[in-house]
Amino acid sequence: MELAEAYYQQAGYAMLQLKYEKAKKLYEAAVELQPNNTIYLNETGYVNRTLGKYSVAKEYYAKALELDKLAHGENHPNIARFYNNLGAVSHLLGNYLVAKEYYEKALAIDKSIHGENDKTVAIRYNNLGSVTQSMGDYSSAKIYYEKALAIDKSIYGDNHTKIGIRYNNLGSVIKAIGHYPLAKEYFEKALVIDKSIYGENHPKIAVDYNNLGAITQSMGDYSQAKEYYAKALAIDKSIHGETHPKIATRYNNLGAVAKAIGDYSQAKEYYEEALAIDKLFHGENHPSIAIRYSNLGSVTIAIGDYLTAKEYYEKAFLLDNIF
Length: 323
Fold this sequence. Notes:
Radius of gyration: 20 Å
Strand content: under 5%
Oligomer: single chain
Order of helices and strands: HHHHHHHHHHHHHHHH
Helix content: over 70%
Number of strands: 0
Number of helices: 16
CATH class of the domain at 242-323: Mainly Alpha
CATH architecture of the domain at 242-323: Alpha Horseshoe
Largest sheet: none
């Protein structure tokens, strides 16, 4: 038992240093010694999720949920947490309806325990905003995000990492609605808050730069967008290495802005990089793969390679029909 706890503590320290592979090995060692310890299971699920191994993470979360249901029943904070985590990996796997159901279960439990004005309830609202946004229900997403922001401001004030997250998410959904200047303001607020807390080389800063790249791209400022995307890519490579779903996203975004300025060969290279990484993590049947094929189809049409473009679009169409 003492050795398992030692592994767990060392893993937590490795996570703080962003050494995720080391943390994964240590958490797995703790679980091997105590396979029914739901804390260890949860953290092992989390580190696998951080590394992009979503199906593996889901297995750990599901086992933890069943064990804690036996110990605590249905209406307990631990159960809400595991429903939330299962929602998160289901969302990442592209199973949006399943994710929404998990998030709603988590919210109902936490509201019954904590009431409305609680930091955990804010997290549940935020996650519901995220999945409804993924489903294209932007008005519902905006309402959920605004509820999360209001709760967190009442608890933390204006300069807190949680507020940065809420600003980013509101910026994202407002961008989807088409209100670009307002969205950019939210993204800039998030960057200022996050830099004051984390400095420059942190995953949250990469997200902020990526979001600013996206909004400046939408506003037609492609050179500025490229600069933001490149900053996001550099930070994420320093943290995650060359092959991670986040790196695929950064390459995809650089491909989009390269295509917008007419550099089609460069765009194609970026899209191919993104596809290769996503295939490595998700296999052939995942919504992100359909997006990558569609983007490659678009740029190969621009190049004039119509037969190849047709093949890419057909692959994207087949995957879209699955999801």
